[in-house]
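Lab channel / #folding
Pinned by the channel admin:
"Please post every new chain as: sequence first, then the structure tokens as a reply. Keep commentary short and put observations after the output so the thread stays searchable."

First post following the new format, from NK:
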Amino acid sequence: MKKLYALLTAYGNTIMLGLAAIPVGVAAGLVDSLFGRVLLELTEVRLAHPYALIPFLALAGAAIVWCMRRLGGASVKGMTLIFEAGHGVTDDIPLRLIPLAIGGTWLTHLFGGSSGREGVAVQIGGTIGHAVGKELPLKNAGRLMLIAGMAAGFAGLFRTPLAATFFAIEVLTAGVLEYRAIFPAMVAAFVASRTSGLCGLGKFTFALSGALSPTLETGARLIVLGAAFGITGGLFAWTMHRIKDGLARLFPHPLVRVLTVGACLSVLSLLCWGGRYSGVSTQLIGLAFEGKAFPWDFALKALFTIVTLSAGFLGGEVVPLFVTGATLGSVIGPLIGLPPAYAAALGCVAVFGGATNTLLGPIVIGGEIFGFAHLPYIFVACTVAYVCNGNSSIYKLQKGRF
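Reply from TO:
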């Protein structure tokens, strides 16, 4: 009788978490759609007037830092706060993190900072999910719903619910899957993706035509590519932590830091073809698929993103990692006998996995973006990248697998 009661209680708790994930997904999808659509409009404005907006990047950075320090409280930690809540270090994620992170990212992109957007989406969803979870009369509900919210935030922005689910359950601790959260994470991810889609937010996708031959020669080429992508992703994460710490020592006051670095970034961005590496730079992915990316695009995009985020600007790293991987793949692929488009596609997801120290999320997002017919090759590239990334992660509080 006790076993039956325990079983029914477990199923009841799972159902409760799944039901709670529905409003989390709706809320995350709605906020993501607003955030994403405005971001696209601001990007178009910047692209139309780069020389009028990029020179003011430093002032935009000062406004971001001032608002975060004046109004943000614990929110100033951003993704670090999400990880602290996930690991039980804190039980408080202020809801004001959402508008501050959104506004700061909009300013960063409008004035030419090189950053992504998914970091904000994950923070949005994680904050909503954690707030809902704390109200549930279940053990660890706050943590489980935090993970579900992270999946919702990711899925609402990228419209890739399967990848969002796996990414959320594996990112807090590398090599460990939080299966207790997989059902609410899945529900929240699909609901958020559907909600943002109904609100007009398009899916992040690129058509990949053709296929590789399943031969030993192809396997060897994929291993070479995967190793290069893993090392690149690991170096991205390692360099980000070192530059962030270095800038903090060199410019201890956050306002001085963001003003000084922002001014330098403005000049360098304008010198680099009028802002080629500003914002998410997704146009570089298109060029990489056509084999027209510059050989140095991957390094400069990575460096601009690292310095931008280390200085105090807001945004994310995932799309810049996609760009870094795609442009690197389009350079390396032809050298080892692979089509540039195919190598670029593998680079998108494998460098992302290498930098975030995750495996399943990158593999599945490769299928959702480029087609599941290519999954065997994506699997090999991402697995090798995961092995070769030196256990590095852009998320400083991510627990390691070794």
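NK: The chain has a mean pLDDT of 95.
TO: also worth noting, Residues 2-198 form a domain with the Clc chloride channel fold (CATH 1.10.3080.10).
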